[in-house]
Amino acid sequence: MSNTTITSVNLTKKDPDPINLTDGAVSKVAELIAAEGVDDVLALRVSVKPGGCSGFNYDMFFDSEFADDDILRDFAGVKVVVDPSSAELLNGSTLDFADGLQGAGFHITNPNATRTCGCGNSFS
Asked: How many Cβ atoms are within 10 Å of 19's Cβ, its own excluded?
């Protein structure tokens, strides 16, 4: 396996701040990355794809390949990467992880969403 180096991107005030992670999300993502047990540098890629009952779906997965125009953020050692198109739709969003009686999971709070569906995975 090859090692991928993630370089920090110098962002200006004009660049979007696509997503923030709560402490709970940072902890869970770090745990999941460690469980992968790979040599590659992994980042959580958060993206928005067309689809779903409200128009767009969130997509999250671990990625070791990065484009030059990707937006990279570091949260206590957890790297998060967002493509520019998704960044526009996510701008100002927060990713949280909850582990409660009604189930565990990640949840995105997106101030740009005008409508969401009942499943919470789709928005417009």
From this structure: 24
Q: Which amino acid is at 32?
A: L
d(CA 104, CA 108): 13
Is the overall model pTM greater than 0.90, yes or no? no
d(CA 86, CA 47): 5
Q: In the chain, where are the structural domains located?
A: 19-123
What is the distance between the alpha carbons of residues 109 and 59, in angstroms, rounded to a whole number?
14
In degrees and rounded to multiples of 5, residue 43 shows phi and psi of -125, 155
Contact 84, 55 (CB under 8 A): no
Report angle CA 35, 89, 86 to the nearest 5 degrees. 50
- Specify the CATH architecture of the domain 19-123: Sandwich (2.60)
Tens digit of each residue's pLDDT, the chain (124 residues): 333 333 333 333 345 579 999 999 999 999 999 999 888 889 999 999 887 666 788 899 999 999 999 999 999 999 999 999 999 999 999 999 998 777 789 999 988 887 665 555 545 4
